[in-house]
């Protein structure tokens, strides 16, 4: 459905022009390029801005701890941004499927609008709410805002979903540029809050999203500031100062070479259309980056859409292997190895650096995500779902589609996946992508005194130096782990 439809409701055409329109915010916590909000403002009706924290949403896929921390800051930033344009953010808590129709009725709303989400449970919830609200005689409209191309719009000639990224990307590019982003409304005419909402709208504090005892979020606070303003700054800074060289440097965790926009995109502080158009404008405006850097960056942004479209086509991929022969994989269940991986104590510096960066900042560089995921699923032969769950709990950008699709991709059981037999060697990867060991030194400081020649292989260091460093020996032999993984894979029927 094009963003421009349905046409704004004209108050003059309706019997009760003061009946409010409700904007239901979800993964789109911004004012600019927010079609639902723009539609509400254009309707001329008073607006009620609503966020519903639904801890049970997606049950097994509920927000992890780091994402909850982010959401707290994101809601506070959105509330302040809305106040600046004259509106109020009402924050409720409960089962959205029952609560939203109730709030609509209590407000005597003429219409409710939202931007679409595409995950299986989100879609189901939205469909049910739309039906319930419409049955009560209230209009409900949804808009495209969270992806460059909605999942059903990029299809093969026979109308099927693409399973190969390069083909999907070619087809997506052939559709032309995504729509230009909408400006933020200068004013949002706030409707007075309905009296009956007081009970349900508990406010942000009551959601208890931030950890208190213990407060483990110090590293997150030091690394990030959630909200639209900071996201726009990050985007602006990246396209003007960081995009040049992205194509070559994006795999280097020791350099600040990527945008770090993933949590902003996850919570919708910026839209992918804004990212796209700002990057294109910077390059075409002669800001230093070339078409190659731009093309690479846009195609990474494309992966985000591709993951959404795969999960849309096959919701069962949330927990099921795309390649079903992997159902018989003899995954290991070893609590000690898992804990060592989670805590960054595997004895492989690049793996440990990545896992500690994740724990401290809620984010990990993409190349290192691939290395640690490969290490878990291959060298340690552990189920990708165990790793996916840990990422879900610890990433500030944890996103159901990107997380599941990437984990399956690395584990070799996914769509268009790297073949299982292609096992990342964490030492070779580290030597190639962290050549001076700067990334390892930052996140595994006990290794900082080691010479670069053995920073990625501390067990090869001069024993006199090694003895001074308190760092674990490798928990698995690389060759042995690789051989065990390949034997398990060969044992699968059809592999
Ligand atoms: C095992 C594994 C799990 C992952 N889980 C998540 C997740 O839960 N949430 C998440 O947003 N990303 C996930 N990714 C993808 C990727 O690692 C991050 O999006 C990226 O590291 C974010 O850094 P950036 O914003 O600096 O990326 P940039 O290189 O600046 O890329 C720009 C944007 O493109 C998108 N993007 C880039 N690479 C990918 C990719 N491989 N898949 C999907 N989108 C991509 C992101 O939205 C990113 O912000 C995962 C990757 C792996 C290997």
The share of residues in extended strands comes to 5-15%
Shape designation = globular
Helix percent reads: 40-55%
Number of H/I helices? 21
How many β-strand runs?
Answer: 5
Looking at the structure, the CATH topology of the largest domain is: DNA Cyclobutane Dipyrimidine Photolyase, subunit A, domain 3
User: In CATH, what is the homologous superfamily of the largest domain?
Assistant: DNA Cyclobutane Dipyrimidine Photolyase, subunit A, domain 3
Cofactor: FAD; (6R)-5,10-methylene-5,6,7,8-tetrahydrofolate
Domain Photolyase/cryptochrome alpha/beta: 19-148
EC number: 4.1.99.3
Protein name: Deoxyribodipyrimidine photo-lyase
Short account of what is shown:
Keywords: Chromophore, FAD, Flavoprotein, Lyase. The chain is mostly helical and 495 residues long. 46% of the residues lie in helices and 5% in strands.
Secondary-structure blueprint:
Elements: E1 21-25, H1 35-42, E2 47-53, H2 65-84, E3 89-93, H3 96-107, E4 111-115, H4 120-135, E5 139-143, H5 165-174, H6 197-200, H7 218-223, H8 228-242, H9 246-249, H10 262-267, H11 272-284, H12 291-313, H13 335-343, H14 349-361, H15 366-379, H16 384-394, H17 400-411, H18 426-433, H19 438-443, H20 463-466, H21 478-490
Parallel strand pairs: 1-2, 1-4, 2-3, 4-5
This protein binds flavin-adenine dinucleotide (FAD).
Flavin-adenine dinucleotide is lined by residues 250, 258-262, 265-266, 300-301, 303-304, 307, 366, 369-370, 373, 391, 395, 397-399, 402-403, 406-407, 410.
